[in-house]
């Protein structure tokens, strides 16, 4: 007869002995559920804290506004920024921001007005031209 060694010497804890067949003992299930609730609460608390930390006031007392922008590549962007009464066209790339143009007079963009008409408006204009032709 072969010896089972350490396996034969293992004892069953009283909590496991009271477990229903094929299931988890009630004490272990309660601990598992309590642990899950604590982890979920910690995640929500961390997200709430992150949200509170990332809120910031408008820079320069609200005198700097982003009027629009477009992605030119994977990491390059073209932005129109209003600083006080001046509007700047900026080229933004990793590690670099460059003023490309200063908009003055009639060339200035008006806040809330898109630089180009939205797609739906352009489509409607094309359809109207075809119907009148």
From TrEMBL:
NCBIfam families: FliO_TIGR. Keywords: Bacterial flagellum, Cell membrane, Cell projection, Cilium, Flagellum, Membrane, Signal, Transmembrane, Transmembrane helix. Pfam families: FliO. It comes from Methylomarinovum caldicuralii. One of its GO terms (biological process) is bacterial-type flagellum organization. The keyword Transmembrane helix applies. GO terms for cellular component: bacterial-type flagellum basal body; plasma membrane. Its main location: membrane. Residues 1-17 form the signal peptide. This is Flagellar protein. Coiled coil: none annotated. InterPro entries: Flagellar_biosynth_FliO (IPR022781), FliO/MopB (IPR052205). It is found in: Cell membrane; Bacterial flagellum basal body. The chain crosses the membrane at residues 27-50. Belongs to the FliO/MopB family.
């Amino acid at each position: 007869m072969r010896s089972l060694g350490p396996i034969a010497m293992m004892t069953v804890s009283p909590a496991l002995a009271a477990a229903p067949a094929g299931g988890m003992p009630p004490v272990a299930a309660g601990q598992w559920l309590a642990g899950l609730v604590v982890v979920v609460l910690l995640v929500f608390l961390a997200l709430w804290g992150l949200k509170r930390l990332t809120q910031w006031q408008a820079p320069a007392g609200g005198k700097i506004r982003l009027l629009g922008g477009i992605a030119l590549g994977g990491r390059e962007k073209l932005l129109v920024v209003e600083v006080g009464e001046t509007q700047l066209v900026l080229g933004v790339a990793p590690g670099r921001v460059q003023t490309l143009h200063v908009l003055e007079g009639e060339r200035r963009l008006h806040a809330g007005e898109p630089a180009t008409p939205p797609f739906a408006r352009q489509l409607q204009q094309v359809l109207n031209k075809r119907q009148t032709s």
